[in-house]
Design a protein that fits this description.
The protein has helices spanning 5-14, 19-45, 55-74. With 79 residues, the protein is mainly α. Helix 2 (19-45) packs across helix 3.
Length: 79
């Protein structure tokens, strides 16, 4: 991401005006959410992670936070 910041920034920016880009991003995010949900469930089954909120909800929250940070970083925002 860091080596191609301009491409990432353009990709994030086009989502607001292009439905195909928005759908592609949404599908990509859903794949990450599904993957991380499976990882959380495996870690819980192994006893390595506590069982708290449902895994899918936790995964969604974590991925949305990640998306927000990436979007801000691509735009050059500072904390």
């Amino acid at each position: 991401f860091g080596a191609h910041r301009a491409v990432c920034r353009a990709t994030v920016g086009v989502q607001s005006t292009n439905s195909e880009a928005r759908e592609l991003w949404s599908r990509s995010m859903q794949r990450w959410i599904d993957h991380i949900t499976a990882v959380i469930e495996a870690e819980r089954a192994d006893g390595s992670a506590p069982v708290t909120v449902p895994a899918a909800e936790l995964s969604t929250a974590l991925n949305l936070m990640n998306e927000s940070v990436m979007t801000a970083a691509f735009a050059g925002h500072q904390p």
